[in-house]
Amino acid sequence: MIRTEGITDVTEETFAAEVLESALPVLVQFTADWCGPCRQLAPVLKEIAREEVDRIRIVQVDVDRESGIGVRYGVLATPTLMVFRAGKPVKSIVGARPKRGLLRELADVLPPFDR
């Protein structure tokens, strides 16, 4: 498993509590050890997890170890990023992105900044 600081590993046993029942939107990265683009995306997700801690949680699912979750949500490629709000998937993004591009794609599913 690609370990990324600040990002929780989710399993079949913890998926409901960590993702479906979260008060914040949750970005789930479907990843695998052998996935090069997943490794490229790891530092981007780490930065976003640290900077946007009040607006989104980021977790990862290893598709080789937790294949049932990937099958349930129709994940066909890694990395797939899926955003869940109120227990439902609301956005899916396939492939690695630079930070600015990823934040732009996530803008419509993130809660507004508290000012």
Automatic annotation (TrEMBL):
Listed SUPFAM superfamilies: Thioredoxin-like
InterPro entries from the UniProt entry: Thioredoxin, Thioredoxin-like_sf, Thioredoxin_CS, Thioredoxin_domain
A Pfam family this chain is assigned to: Thioredoxin
Coiled coil: none
Alphabetical keyword list: Disulfide bond, Electron transport, Redox-active center, Transport
Domain Thioredoxin: 1-111
Family: Belongs to the thioredoxin family.
PANTHER family documented for this protein: GEO12009P1
Protein name (database record): Thioredoxin
Species whose genome carries this gene: Streptomyces globisporus
